Amino acid sequence: MLKATDPDDRQGWWSRLVRRETASEADRSLPEAYRSLNVWQASDGARPWWRRALGFAGPGFLVAVGYMDPGNWGTDLAGGSRYGYALLWVILASSLMAMLLQVLCARLGIVTGRDLAQACRERFSRPTTIALWLLAEVAIIACDLAELIGAAVALNLLLGIPLVWGVVISGFDVLILLLLVNVGFRWLEAIIVTLVVTIGACFAWTVFLAHPDWSAVATGTFVPSLPGGGALLIALGILGATVMPHNLYLHSSIVQTRAIGRSRRDIKAAIGHNTLDTIVALTGAFFVNAAILILAAAVFWKSGVVVEELQQAHELLAPALGGAAATLFAVALLCSGQSSTITGTLAGQIVMEGFLRIRIKPWLRRMITRLIAIVPALMIVSATGGRDTVQLLVVSQVVLSMQLPFAIFPLMMLTSSKTRMGEFANPWPVVILGYGVCAIISALNVYLLWTTIGPVWVCAIAAVMAAFALWVRFAYRPSSAAA
């Protein structure tokens, strides 16, 4: 006689992989690491400033990894090989914007105990929350695509692995990354810092060998210019590769791995230490990005060579600077792709849990994201034979730039709210500066769309967005369950 199957048993395997968060979990960002690290408290008494700062150091470097991922390589190599040192000012301006936005993200997480996704879910209506979640997922997939291509190219350059197999191998590195996450968040931060230092050292040496024109470097850094019509596309790609949407969600979450007190003094101290951590880490990321563009200008632009592929850059470095420089280039590329994969994993989990209150096992979440990115990556690599990788990376970073306004405007709204932030709400100079940054980024994106897809499509997109906003504002009525 057959035994009836319990419906709960049939759904048990699925519920173990995907489930709704409990009320206590919904209040915690990255529950497995939430407040897992003890740091200095105001009540602990005097302690050397450097020891206090080291306790809070780490989140900024996890964020900085995203600012030197393979997508940055593509835009920086394209900018340097096409326009020399002229676009260095874009890297500087983007880095300053990134510092402002990341500091605000850290402040949001420390003061409210919510990451950006959670805060958006609590502040906005359900349809708006779903729309913001979908846009964040698009940004994460675009970033993942760049990581896949970059890591695959690095494996090809170092080990001779075909690009198609490199994409597959890079796509399933999730098992290694999960082992790193499980050893503890502090160890994870140490591994990331090691990879960042390796990338920086590789480029410091290659730039030294390249002997760039330092007067032209200074001019390009501090004198804005856009030489040629294609420079705007590259500039927007640099902007999208530098100020990354998923990093905003990530940073507001990982600052909560520190168990800080809730007194005014403790919160103020945590904000100060995390601000220092962010500025130091992103300054390092700025120098890495600037070094990539300077290297491309000194070696390729000077010779009249436009870099279309990462492999091409590697091949041309060998005769120009020696085999060691080319090897360092490939090693740095591999470190870049693998380290940025970790932040993509965490950001995907934060976005999913924060917006939807759904918890998915980290390995399953990573596999879903990677499979979505692997398919177009394999199609592109198979169709092109690995050609035009730099152009592909630039396009992926432009897609990231398009998603930026949908993350930075909510960030400014939330951190400027006295209801949510209390005395730590943005003062009016920061409000003006922050919304000015949002307006500049949005205007550049609209101009790029206007010149690439035409005014008809731009107007159509604007009409759809306006109709959605009007529907949410005046027609949408949440159900009792959703409320």
Helix content: over 70%
The neighbouring-strand order within the major sheet is: 1-4
Distance between the termini: 47 Å
C-alpha geometry: globular
Mean pLDDT: 81
| Rg over CA atoms | 23 Å
Structure description:
With 483 residues, the chain is mainly alpha-helical. Helix content is 76%, strand content 2%. It has 24 helices and four strands. Helix 6 (70-83) packs antiparallel against helix 14 and helix 7 crosses helix 13 (214-222).
Brief rundown of the structure:
It is built from 24 helices and 4 strands. The protein is an all-alpha fold and 483 residues long.
Structural descriptors:
mainly alpha, two-stranded antiparallel ribbon, 4 strands, disordered N terminus, 483 residues, two-stranded parallel sheet
Task: Lay out the secondary structure.
Layout: H1 7-10, H2 12-17, E1 18-20, H3 23-26, E2 37-38, H4 49-56, H5 59-65, H6 70-83, H7 88-112, H8 116-123, H9 126-159, H10 163-171, H11 174-182, H12 185-210, H13 214-222, H14 231-242, H15 245-254, E3 258-259, H16 264-299, H17 310-321, H18 323-356, E4 358-360, H19 362-384, H20 389-403, H21 405-415, H22 418-421, H23 428-452, H24 455-475
Parallel strand pairs: 2-3
Antiparallel strand pairs: 1-4
Helix pairs in contact: 5-12, 5-15, 5-16, 6-14, 6-16, 6-20, 7-13, 7-14, 7-15, 7-16, 7-21, 8-18, 9-10, 9-18, 9-19, 9-20, 10-19, 12-16, 12-18, 14-20, 14-23, 15-18, 17-18, 18-19, 21-23, 23-24
